[in-house]
């Protein structure tokens, strides 16, 4: 179920946020070139939807993202991670294309999370979804 679609000032969609009841989890599907503003607004938006839907898991899908988002890592560490924990995030599956620039940014974020919630990187959506289902079954 589509919950939100975020657009740039030019009217281009950069993030769609879906609720997946089979988990349940939020599926954040990023599109195009990430900017500091889009990462900030998008990451906070999907956390708000996660909280409103009573979810503890996110499938963060960067397969259609082009480029790194390292410029946002400080914001993510200082503001997003504490808010994610406060909103109940326990499991974050990150889906990316192998060898992409975005994948290296995800590795850097994983180092900053430091066991505050479970984070796993995937290349295959079915594997990411299976991992989320297994984690949610165990809680």
Description of the molecule:
The chain has 139 residues and is an alpha/beta fold. It has a single domain (2-138), classed as 2-Layer Sandwich (Transcription Regulator spoIIAA). It contains 4 helices and 6 strands. The protein has helices at 36-53, 73-86, 101-113, 125-138; strands at 2-7, 13-20, 25-32, 57-65, 91-95, 118-122. Helix 2 packs across helix 3. The mean pLDDT is 90.
Write the layout of secondary structure elements.
Elements: E1 2-7, E2 13-20, E3 25-32, H1 36-53, E4 57-65, H2 73-86, E5 91-95, H3 101-113, E6 118-122, H4 125-138
Parallel strand pairs: 3-4, 4-5, 5-6
Antiparallel strand pairs: 1-2, 2-3
Which features would summarize this protein structure in a list?
Transcription Regulator spoIIAA, alpha/beta, six-stranded mixed beta sheet, globular, 4 helices, 139 residues
Order of helices and strands: EEEHEHEHEH
The helix tally amounts to 4
Strand residues, percent: 25-35%
Strand order of the largest sheet: 1-2-3-4-5-6
Which residues form runs of ≥5 with pLDDT under 50?
Answer: none
The radius of gyration is 14 Å
How many domains make up the coordinates?
A: 1
Helix content: 40-55%
- What's the CATH architecture? 2-Layer Sandwich
Helix and strand content put the structural class at alpha/beta
Mean pLDDT: 90
Question: CATH class, anyone?
Answer: Alpha Beta
- Total strands: the figure is 6
Largest sheet: 6 strands, mixed
Which descriptor suits the 3D outline?
Answer: globular
Corresponding CATH superfamily: STAS domain
Distance between the termini: 24 Å
